[in-house]
Write a sequence for this structure.
């Protein structure tokens, strides 16, 4: 049972998530005139799972294996020093980012601070020819001038709500839910396993 807030509504179910990812895959291919020199880099923890799904869809559509990696931004976040125990994952990018078109993939775009941290982390690895942003959900409330190039769904929400993606691979269910933030809680990604 999830203890992170009362679920107010389910704004995307598994089928809607899949349709959105198929559309985003087509848009990435159309924008970049195919998959040549395109690489998908997912922001852990759920952005990398979405990047894996997008890579599979691009293979279905275009018949090519697109380069794919995962990016941990724990030490690039502007709240890193105020977090007592940041959850550290690993960055795995098995290709040179220099000269490539990198599509950063994340689950929910909110203030833009996660993407700013991801840009810093990515630039430490090399100099891409361009960086594009794909998100499953854009919930608004930007604090930084960051805009997604590819969006699955715009979900208006208030600051006292959380918009969370749950995926079959990590949570046993695929859905995007809006829930109330518990007192003392904060907006953010769902813990792995939906706990």
């Amino acid at each position: 049972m999830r203890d992170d807030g009362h679920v107010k509504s389910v704004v995307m179910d598994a089928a809607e998530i899949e349709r959105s990812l198929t559309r985003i895959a087509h848009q990435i291919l159309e924008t970049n005139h195919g998959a040549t020199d395109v690489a998908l880099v997912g922001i852990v923890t759920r952005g990398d799972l979405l990047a894996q799904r997008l890579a599979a869809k691009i293979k279905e559509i275009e018949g090519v294996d697109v380069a794919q990696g995962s990016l941990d931004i724990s030490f690039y976040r502007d709240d890193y020093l105020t977090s007592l125990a940041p959850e550290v994952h690993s960055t795995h990018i098995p290709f040179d980012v220099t000269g490539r078109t990198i599509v950063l993939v994340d689950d929910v775009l909110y203030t833009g601070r996660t993407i700013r941290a991801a840009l810093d982390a990515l630039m430490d690895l090399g100099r891409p020819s361009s960086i594009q942003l794909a998100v499953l959900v854009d919930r608004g409330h930007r604090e930084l001038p960051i805009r997604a190039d590819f969006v699955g769904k715009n979900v208006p929400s208030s600051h006292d709500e959380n918009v969370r993606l749950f995926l079959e691979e990590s949570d046993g269910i695929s859905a995007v839910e809006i829930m109330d933030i518990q007192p003392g809680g904060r907006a953010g990604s769902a813990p792995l396993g939906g706990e």
Summary: Residues 135 and 151 are 5 Å apart (CA to CA).
